[in-house]
Specification:
With 225 residues, the protein is of the alpha+beta class. It folds into two domains: 101 residues, no CATH class; 111 residues, Toxin ADP-ribosyltransferase, Chain A, domain 1. It is globular, with a radius of gyration of 21 Å.
Length: 225
């Protein structure tokens, strides 16, 4: 029986399309998970969640595989070659494509961090020529890889003591997500931005080095658009 004002045929068509779309997404997710589980490091993190060896932090917001892929990213195996591939330095693979898609999907679901209201810290190890090429004052840039930053001055000082760097990046974020709770390195107090995030280069100059305020450091100020 057709209710007044309701086209049941149109409704049935809509419902069937929705079912097919859900089935398609489920199949894609299944293929992505199978691909990710071919990596032993991701598989270990995934299984630690399954077994309860590691307690999940975002059970309401994320699926198990989504939380696992973000935790995997916080390991050296999970980010180093992955971001190189996203930047075009090494070939992309089906594994990296699945990782990128699942990470962006997961970050979209997480709440935006209140720390975006303050200037975040990031360090990079770049030559002067590369800095001039990448960061032109007033220009708009779209990142290829995922962008990590920290809200903690103590954390960036610790990073400076343990990693080579030539430039300090200060980021005024808008949609950065706090992944400290699920990270394998929670002391980094990491804020993560999705791949292909757009920033404006607000300023290029110098500021006091957090490691030693008496020494100025080349600094780039970015604003997420």
């Amino acid at each position: 029986m057709q209710k007044e004002g309701v086209d049941t045929k149109e409704l049935d068509t809509f419902v069937e399309k929705a079912r097919r779309e859900v089935g398609k997404r489920t199949a894609e997710s299944s293929r992505s998970l199978k691909r990710l589980l071919t990596n032993e490091d991701y598989k270990r993190i995934y299984n630690d969640f399954v077994s309860g060896k590691v307690t999940r932090k975002f059970t309401k917001e994320l699926s198990l595989e989504e939380e696992a892929v973000l935790r995997f990213y916080t390991t050296k195996e999970g980010y180093k070659n992955f971001n190189r591939a996203l930047r075009g330095e090494i070939p992309m693979t089906d594994f990296y494509i699945s990782q990128k898609k699942l990470m962006n999907q997961a970050l979209k679901k997480l709440p935006t961090s209140n720390h975006n209201n303050s200037l975040l810290y990031r360090i990079e190890d770049l030559s002067e020529d590369k800095i001039s090429e990448l960061y032109v004052q007033g220009s708009i840039i779209k990142t290829k890889g995922f962008t990590s930053a920290t809200y903690s001055e103590d954390a960036v000082i610790e990073a400076m003591r343990n990693r080579p760097y030539t430039v300090l990046i200060r980021i005024e974020g808008k949609d950065g997500k706090l992944i400290e709770g699920l990270s394998t390195l929670p002391s980094e107090k990491e804020i993560l931005f999705k791949s292909e995030t757009i920033f404006k280069v607000e300023k290029v100059g110098f500021s006091p080095n957090p490691e030693d305020y008496m020494i100025p450091i080349k600094t780039i100020w970015l604003k997420e658009l």
